[in-house]
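One-letter codes give the sequence; the integers encode the fold. A sample entry reads:
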Amino acid sequence: MKKIVLVFTILAFYSCNQSLEDKIVGKWNFENVDSQILDLSELRYKNSSLSNLLGSSFYEMNYLFFQKEKSYKGVLGVYNGIYTDGNWSFNENDSIVSFTENRITKPFLKIKSVSDKELRFSVVGKHPTMDNLMEFVFVKENQELNNSKFDYTQKQFNLWRKSPDEPEDLNQISKRVKQCLEYSVTYLKYNLEQKKSSVSLKEISFLPINFYDNGIQLKDPDELQKWDNVFFSNVDALNGREIIKQIIKTDFSLPEDKSGLELDIYILEEIKNRIK
């Protein structure tokens, strides 16, 4: 019993003596937006859809992954977000984290508080008054991504997040669909490697697919809001869905000796491999 107490005492001492910079290190996933903006009647009147914009569904794909060697990776922005990576630095005087990407350094977030489980910050932007009224809450995720060959946060698996500037032809759409599937397979394989008892499908909820214990089903065209945002237009998104649909309609035998997670991986890999 004394040994257990001693261990907890050491852990508590270590936690208390960690610098703020050390506490930032790790992968943080979006939880919610704590905003006072909606308390201001003049802003609420001007922004009738503001409450929807601050909803968690808009940012649920967001994460920040701070690494000890001062590199970072992240997905930020509404819906599927924009992939970003580079280096980070921390200023203890003002609690501001700056990002350096493509040799350009900009202050990005001001930390309000950080614990072993929660990171709260405001975004450093062009409108300080508005920015200070919005506090983003991210929660710590216990990940071992640096030691995994299935690190789905690597840039090579997130190329699909860069939105096209113009309509794409069928070959380009097919390539984008394959990128989406490769990211999804890598994410699922990481969870399989970690032997997780439950797996969140939030990270791949943008796919035009619903997952079930014994297989998958295509989402209806009116359920494709996140999928639409992967493409230039709704037309391109529907063409991407059609590529998947035509493959699913073909002879598609499923193995019987796999778990639900293994079956999902098998199906998505088969679809990806059959796209020309």
Q: What stands out?
A: Residues 2-15 have pLDDT under 50 and may be disordered. The CA atoms of residues 3 and 9 lie 10 Å apart.
